[in-house]
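Contributing new records

If you add data, match the layout below exactly. Sequence lines come first and carry their own label; structure lines follow with theirs. Keep one chain per record. Anything else will be rejected by the validation script.
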Amino acid sequence: MGLKLELVWNARGPLLLGTLVTLEVAFLALGLALVLGLPLAILRSSRLKILSVPAFLYIQFFRGTALYVLVLWVFFGLAIAFNINLPPFGAAVLCLGLLNSAYMAEVYRTGLGTVGFGQLEAARSLGLPEMPVFRHVVLPQAVRIIIPSAANLFVDMLKDAAIVGVVGVWDLMKQADRLTKFYFRPFEFYTGAALVYFVVVFFFSRLVGVLEKRFSRHVRKEKV
């Protein structure tokens, strides 16, 4: 039958729209993970078990849950069990954000843990309350560890977002699947989708590498 790669080029419009939807899902999910991850990290680090244990269970639950299963359960399960009907796009962002908030919490914990205890004691000895200490001493230093790790997590989220089409989100894979069924050319369109994912992931991976080099250089200078 031969390859007909020109079909992929002719269908670049829908594939581009699907790519934009994939990026939108990943960016919004990252925002949700960033917002939820910080309080989770603070609760997880608490000495009070009533605070640390629920945060620990939350993190373990979502780190041990498959995204595919979570998306199906939230989209279909909530509608059946509780009559809560989420739109496909909202369900995808929610699931991807909740799952990665558990990983983001560990990223925050790692970054916050890099600040030396002596610096905290010095700030407190000046009479600074806990919140200003956290905002002006801890967070600016931790951010240099957190940002590259969060960017790396975003790359993983981009790849994970490939399954959100299962609930009707018109992402890149959903568009490729639709075109495959229309033209009966699965190899061409799935190969095209794979190449688009490679280009997008490669771009953001390179960006992550730049961020890691930049922030690691600042960390080395401070240690010296």
